[in-house]
Structures are given as structure tokens and as C-alpha cells.
């Protein structure tokens, strides 16, 4: 009888990697029965025709969010002390003192952090979270689903969602092997590992080293390097459109060369609209000197702000907005979910843009997969004032230390240099592609097209 695998979506972030790639087909070719264990508002059955078991109970324990925040703070405190590095406090979000309820929650959080700020404290808090989640109706609900459907293994598509804790605990308590996929390139140093599973699939040697460094309770044999399906679509030529077809579909001017501006979320880059404005000014200046350039603005899929509107309106002759093909399925940021069509759109935005510009985003890897350069903005805007986060701190984060050299991206450290950098890239005199490819290999691994296959090989080994 075919082994049954539950592919667990605690939230929508894993859809792109595990529902819209070849992941399911590869698993089925290996003889697995694949059922999506779905805690999201997205219906895989209706949208894609995939077999799914819906989790209708979304209630975590009321204290889980507080204890999760405590765990994160303590892990960052321990890392700061252990590695003598003041980058870790910068990963913390400020406490909320608005209103009595928030003030009391903040007070409780700070007391718990104070009482548990050590490696032993981390273990205590993790055990506490697990016992809270085991006491919930959701835990009993998930356990009943597992008892009914009897999967041979649960593969969780992200390690960072509190919504997954009860389901994974229920699986472990029933003796079902559990595997978590580490979702993003910056997640491990940021203390984003919410779950404890039997095995972890990671992108690269670098990420394996990080998991073992930050989580001493995880053993070497539990961490398996597979790569990530995130970039597989960039090597799928069936997604490719001709320049004529792509430009006609999105009403682009066939005579123009387009530069992509990839927008950021408000937390990472609160003044992002002004960098778009700076690029527009550089493009206008170059056009006056004889170039024929335009800008494709692709916003961050989870950005629902209106902060770019004025810049887009005053530059509509040169900026074309191509919004990511994601669907809002609810009110929260993590309920804005990707679609399969967006993989094709992104592939062709990369293919038909000259290069990309942004603030510290992983789109550097999307574009380097298409042999295209990336300009990272790294200067302060005059609008920066107290209470607004300076983007410069992003480049000090641990995941940027993985760069093989400072040439792995083109850094614009002065607004006045932007026009010249754009010109040099367009003329082929400046590129980060060769160093960027080395960086891609460090972060993503050596075989970016084989991640789905390697994850299934890992599942094979675990079940044997």
C-alpha cells in the first residue's frame, strides 16, 4: 500500500514552494499518496483539485503568543551573550504599551523573560508552550484527524508558525514522524524556529551550520540539506514568454528598456517609496540624455499601504505597476496568498527587466538566476526621523554576512551615485552576477533545481 504523507500548511507561506511547484508530482511519481493538511483559508481542493484535510479549528492557547514572544526574546538574549554580538537585539520588535491590556501583557512578557534568560530557560519556555498547546481543543481536534487518516509522516512547510505546534505535537504523540522545512534565508539567526520536529530540511550547508549553532538541542543527524523549491521556477523554461508576448500582455512599451523596482514591506523599509522616487529621477535624467527607459514597479505581495501612490501618480509616464498575482483571502498579512500564475509573472519580470533595484530583499537571487544584476539602496532618506527605522541596519543582519564579497550586490550608498550606477549596468560595465551566483550557491545550495526531489529522497530515508 502507498505511504500517505500529510503536507501541512499551518499558514499560506508554503503554498508557493509546495503546492505550485512540481513537488506534488515528484512525490506521486515516487508512489506516495499526498494529502494536504490545510490550516489556511485557501482551498487546495477547489483551486487546484488536490486532496486535502481542512483544519477548521484555528485556536491556539491564549498564552501561546505571549510565551512565543518570550522564547524569541530569550533566544536573542542568549545569542547576544554567547556570540558577543549586538546585532541580535535589533531583531526584536518594540513592546506595546498602548492601553491597559497591552501594558499588562508587556509586563508579564518582561517578567517571564527576566526569569528565564538562559539556555535552560529556553528549554523551560519551549516545554511550557508545548504543554499549553497540548491542553487545547485544537490539539485534540488535530489528533482526531490524524487518527482517522493515519498518515505515515507529517511534512510541515514552515518552521515559524505557532499554528503548527498543536498538530505537530499530536503527530509526535501518536508516533508519526515529523519533518519541518526551514522557510526563509534569514529565519534561523532571527529566532524564528517555533516548532520542534524529528527532522529539519534546510537550504544549504550554511543553514545547517546555523540550525546546529543556534539550537544545541538539535542533533546533526536531524538536519538534512535539501535546498528550497523557492527558486525552482526560475529554471522552468515552460514559464518563459517572448518579449513581444510579455510586453503585450502587460501593456509595456516594446521600445523601452525596463528596470524592475521590487518593493518592500513597511517594517523592513518604511521609507521605500522615496527610493522608488530616486530611481524615477535617475531614469528621467538618463532619458533626457538619450536613453529610453521605464520602471516596472512590483510591490511586496504583503504590502497593503498607500505610501507609493503619490510617487506612482506623478511618474505614471515612466512607471508601470505590475502587482504580484496574490489573493487577499482574509484580513491579516499572512492571509494574502500566492497564486500559481505569479510564478510565471515573476519569471518573465526577471527575464525581461534589465536588472532589479530594492532594499535588501532576496529578489537579488531571483534575478541572479536570470543573470541579472541587483542594486541595493543603502543610504538614509532625509525623511528619516526618530521612531522610523533606518534601512541601513538591515545590511548588518546575520544573513548578509553570507555574502562571499561586497560585490555580491551593487550597493548604492549615495543618492547622487544612483544615475551613474544605473548607466554602468545598462552599458555592461558593472555587474554583480558572477559574485551574486556564488552568494546564491552559499545561501540556496549547489543544485537549486533538485530541491523538491531531495526533500522526497529525505522522506524516503526517514520512512525506511
Q: Could you describe the 3D structure shown?
A:
This protein is globular. The mean pLDDT is 95. It has helices spanning 15-18, 23-29, 44-48, 64-82, 99-116, 119-134, 137-149, 165-173, 205-214, 243-249, 272-288, 309-314, 340-352, 363-368, 418-426, 433-444, 451-463; strands at 4-9, 33-38, 52-54, 153-156, 178-181, 199-202, 223-225, 257-262, 293-298, 319-321, 327-328, 336-337, 355-358, 373-377, 410-412. With 464 residues, it is an alpha/beta fold. It folds into 3 domains: 4-60 and 136-227 and 448-463, Glycogen Phosphorylase B (Rossmann fold, 3-Layer(aba) Sandwich); 64-131, no CATH class; 238-444, 3-Layer(aba) Sandwich (Rossmann fold), CATH 3.40.50. The strands form 3 sheets. It has a 7-stranded parallel sheet, sandwiched between helices. The protein has a 6-stranded parallel sheet with strand order 10-9-8-13-14-15, sandwiched between helices. The longest helix is centred in the N-terminal third of the chain and has 19 residues, at 64-82.
Beta-strand residue percentage: 5-15%
The total of helices stands at 17
CATH architecture of the largest domain: 3-Layer(aba) Sandwich
| Morphology call | globular
Largest beta sheet: strand ordering? 3-2-1-4-5-6-7
- CATH class group of the largest domain: Alpha Beta
Uncertain runs with pLDDT below 50, 5 residues or more?
none
- CATH topology-level name of the largest domain: Rossmann fold
Topology:
Blueprint: E1 4-9, H1 15-18, H2 23-29, E2 33-38, H3 44-48, E3 52-54, H4 64-82, H5 99-116, H6 119-134, H7 137-149, E4 153-156, H8 165-173, E5 178-181, E6 199-202, H9 205-214, E7 223-225, H10 243-249, E8 257-262, H11 272-288, E9 293-298, H12 309-314, E10 319-321, E11 327-328, E12 336-337, H13 340-352, E13 355-358, H14 363-368, E14 373-377, E15 410-412, H15 418-426, H16 433-444, H17 451-463
Parallel strand pairs: 1-2, 1-4, 2-3, 4-5, 5-6, 6-7, 8-9, 8-13, 9-10, 13-14, 14-15
Antiparallel strand pairs: 11-12
Helix pairs in contact: 4-5, 4-6, 7-8, 11-15
